[in-house]
Design a protein that fits this description.
The chain is of the alpha/beta class. The chain has helices at 14-18, 27-38, 51-61, 91-105, 162-173, 196-207, 224-229, 241-246, 258-270; strands at 9-12, 42-46, 66-69, 74-77, 82-86, 109-114, 121-123, 137-138, 150-156, 178-183, 186-190, 214-218, 232-235, 249-250.
Amino acid sequence: MAAPLAYALIATDLDGTLLRGDDTLSDRSLAALRRAAAAGARHLVVTGRPAPRVRPLLDDLGSRGLAVCGQGAQLYDAGADRLLWSVTLDRELAETALGKIEAEVGQVYAAVDQDGVDGLTLIEPGYLMPHPTLPAVRVERRDDLWAEPISKVLLRHPALADDELACTARSVVGSLASVTMSGPGTVELQPLGITKATGLALAARHLGLTPADTIAFGDMPNDIPMFDWAAHGVAMANAHPELKAVADEVTTSNEDDGIAVVLERLLLDAGF
């Protein structure tokens, strides 16, 4: 008789983790997640992408449940296509934070994710989308970014490395916002105190699950709070060194089905 899986909740980042570089999901990874679901586990996407940019991927996964979006600022119910919970970033504070950052490093280029299930991603002149497959609307000037409530601001610098930009931003932003790095070319300002861990904890409570039930997969520093919260954190081989330093284990890369490798092992251990 098969034993229960070691973890009842599988929390996965998307970009650089579950998804391959071309934004697709491999057959092997999808099969492993389906086998885990058949064994009683729940899969929860925990991503920096806002809800509107996650909806098509949830359809591919066949997921009609919850997803943590916007770095934890949104709890999205895919079945009902609505936000159960959301936190916005004060636009005046965001603009002030940008000014403080630019006073230190010179001009940066900014984008915002608007709040809501139909919110747009707006980009100012000069900003290059790190994921060219994701839709975005270019505005004429920065002031246009603040037209509607936002969940976060995305920053790029023409010369500074992401780590340097994130470090400087943290040093000057103070209590205006939280600063995180979620991928190549993606330094972000988000509501103060909001992380993937806060969103994951809220989703887990909805599901009746706890940190002890949870295994988390990720690749970037924005996944560190999620690893701190979960019982077991798995970094991809392609992960940022800061995440690998706090991971409980390192699997193969997102291109080599690193999530499937771990899930197949857990399924085998449980007799599935």
